[in-house]
Write a structure and sequence with these properties.
14 helices, four-stranded antiparallel β-sheet, about 270 residues, Beta-Lactamase, alpha+beta, Arc Repressor Mutant, subunit A, 2 domains
């Protein structure tokens, strides 16, 4: 532990004294027209905070293998065994950095050792294997940037470095605005290039006022007959409106339509 702390202090980043350098990288990322230039800017950001190896995924809440995330990690120089282990046995659902992404809005830091898990079980199974392999690469911690997206997706940009947890927390705190800008800019570029579905605003204008009434009441737990009584219409009319809502939101069922609307922030469920 003492040796790791000494090494981290010796390599502590100098960008804190020059915030203009971080600002320049943020502007560069916002203006990037392709993944090549964007990843080059991320590399410069990694150098400024002295955490040299980037991690990125378009959805940290998904256990499914993602080809774009794998390609990114390979280009960043991650060994093949680490890349493949990232999606084995549902690891993304159990890794601490992925779990915290689902609850955090600001950049945070985690240790690749067990000491930060004071009130939790230590790393085990595939997640321990991933942590051990990352430590073998010379990394002690990861600074993580959660990026919240529509449909309850949470993208994640991370930077692995030799710093111990205390130093990584400092980086996450003083570089937070620039890390957030980088995470959102890079993810937005990827979303555009991947041609994701239309923006949530399109869903707002797609529904009629009566459909909104039915959807809002359904989200609050009202049943079909109750929705009809509240709106002064027949249950068959409610059924007609709900079927339209399902189709317009691209859902598979009424429950799915309510979930999609709640994930997009279009309705309240309580």
């Amino acid at each position: 532990m003492a040796a790791r702390r000494a090494k981290a202090r010796a390599e502590k980043p100098t960008a804190l004294a020059d915030p203009a350098a971080l600002q320049d990288v943020s502007v560069e990322l916002l203006g990037a027209g392709g993944l090549g230039s964007a990843e080059a800017a991320l590399g410069r950001l990694a150098g400024l905070i002295a955490m040299p190896r980037a991690i990125w995924t378009p959805d940290a809440a998904s256990p499914l293998h993602d080809a774009a995330a794998e390609s990114f990690m390979r280009r960043q120089g991650w060994p093949a065994e680490i890349v493949s282990a990232m999606w084995e046995g549902g690891v993304p659902l159990r890794m601490p950095l992925n779990i915290r992404c689902r609850f955090e809005h600001l950049p945070f830091a985690i240790s690749l050792y067990d000491e930060h898990r004071k009130h939790r079980a230590p790393y085990s199974g595939e997640q321990k294997r991933v942590a051990v392999m990352m430590r073998a690469e010379g990394f002690n911690s990861v600074v993580v940037v959660p990026v919240r997206l529509p449909y309850a997706r949470i993208a994640m940009l991370g930077f692995a470095g030799p710093q111990v947890l205390e130093e990584a927390k400092e980086i996450a705190a003083w570089a937070a605005p620039h890390l957030l800008a980088a995470g959102h800019a890079f993810t937005a570029l990827h979303e555009r290039l991947a041609r994701r579905p239309p923006a949530p605003e399109a869903h707002r204008t797609a529904l009629t006022p009566r459909e909104w009434d039915c959807l809002s009441l359904a989200a609050q737990g009202f049943r079909e007959a109750e929705i009809a009584a509240e709106n002064g219409i027949k249950p068959t009319t409610v059924r007609y409106h709900m079927d339209n809502i399902v189709a317009k939101l691209g859902a598979r069922s009424r429950a799915h339509a309510v979930a999609v609307a709640a994930q997009l922030g279009l309705v309240r469920t309580a």
